[in-house]
Amino acid sequence: MFALIDGNNFYVSCERAFNPRLAQRGVVVLSNNDGCVISRSNEAKVHVKMGQPYYQLQEQLAAHSITALSANFSLYGDMSARMMRLASALGPSQEIYSIDECFIGGLEGIAQLTTRARAIRQRIERCLSIPCCIGIAPTKTLAKLCNHIAKEAERRQGGYSPAWAQVCNWQEISPSQQIALLQHTPVAAIWGIGRRMGPQLAKAGCTTAYDLAQLPSALARSMGGVVLERTARELQGISCLTLDNAPAAKQQIACTRSFGQAVHTLPPLLEAVSEFASRAAEKARVADVLAAQVHVFAYTSPFRQGLPWHGAMTVPLRQPSNDARSLVQAATHAARSFFQAGHPLSKAGVILLGLQPSHQPRTSDLFADADIPSTSTHLMQAVDAINARYGKQTIHLASCGLPGQDSTGWRMKQAMRSPLYTMRYEDLPVAQA
């Protein structure tokens, strides 16, 4: 038995948790640089489509009193970690699938599972003010479907049975109702099918989830390989997908950003690349890995007039490292090497490659830079500890610029970003009598 716990309209729910004025009104959250809509409240879904560009919506949002907010990913990540800790109490094993979703496994034999799931849901909403829905089923694919049913039953009256709202347990649905639900669900809406496979299946006469569940295994494999065969079996109630309790080791670590405004000169590019490399180094230390190569890129907007331009370079390190100084040094060297004046750059990024465990034995380097001593591990640990206690970038490399200041204009547009309520003392909400 599996359960899928999913935070409803997660980014919007995180904003509402700290701003009661946003309750019961239309709210949308925008992507980096306030580009397009990436999260909508139920009230906003009537008027706004996912992915719509913000600049096309401003009059429409104002007409319907819909509030637009800049993305606050640091806040969302912290709230996600808190939600996942509470969700883990539902069962013995957990797979965090995305920032707002997780699978819980090992639920076989748990008495009154639906009641327990409702208690976990209430605890999450009580502690974090984040509403969520839970789907429970003998397979992960059916758990996904049940989660969808739980959301729709709560959101829309007259669709699904109100008994399935918020928490939907497949085993508590009669066989005839299970068939009706599968027949009511378009095949393209099934987890793992997607927009490409859906039309192909429809052309072959497989238009609903029930049609897919009835496909013989050999035919399903011939149409979509082993992935489609597994999906068909999962819809039949045969579990083919297990929990990923130990995520695969990362092959790379990336930090990329679009610029708030076009970058034409080298200094702002170096500052941006320095910050990206520092953040990537921090991620590497959290993952306890070292990077053997640093890849840096920058390019112009694909929508600008004229020929697009792209610059990139990969710098091998003498010794694998997660020291911010080594990685920033390599990244800025790459940026200096490929930069060409006259191109308005819209985005850049740093990608760490050749990752390996920090504890892996390494040979000593006779040619290591004297500026990066062997005590770098202790230094980085001290920097991380100070930044964790007093706030990010309390200690940082000078080449990253001054925190909170954007003298060169490359930083993202976040004019409507909410405070970091859970991460900075100065941003703590203040109750007024």
From TrEMBL:
Protein name per UniProt: Y-family DNA polymerase
Gene3D superfamilies in the record, alphabetically? 3.30.70.270, 3.40.1170.60, 5' to 3' exonuclease, C-terminal subdomain (1.10.150.20)
Q: Which family does it belong to?
A: Belongs to the DNA polymerase type-Y family.
Record has Magnesium as a keyword:
no
Assigned keywords, A-Z: DNA damage, DNA repair, SOS mutagenesis, SOS response
> Where does the UmuC domain lie?
2-194
What PANTHER family does the database record attribute to this sequence?
DNA REPAIR POLYMERASE UMUC / TRANSFERASE FAMILY MEMBER (PTHR11076), PROTEIN UMUC (PTHR11076:SF34)
- What is the species of this protein? Comamonas avium
Taxonomic superkingdom: Bacteria
Is DNA damage one of the keywords? yes
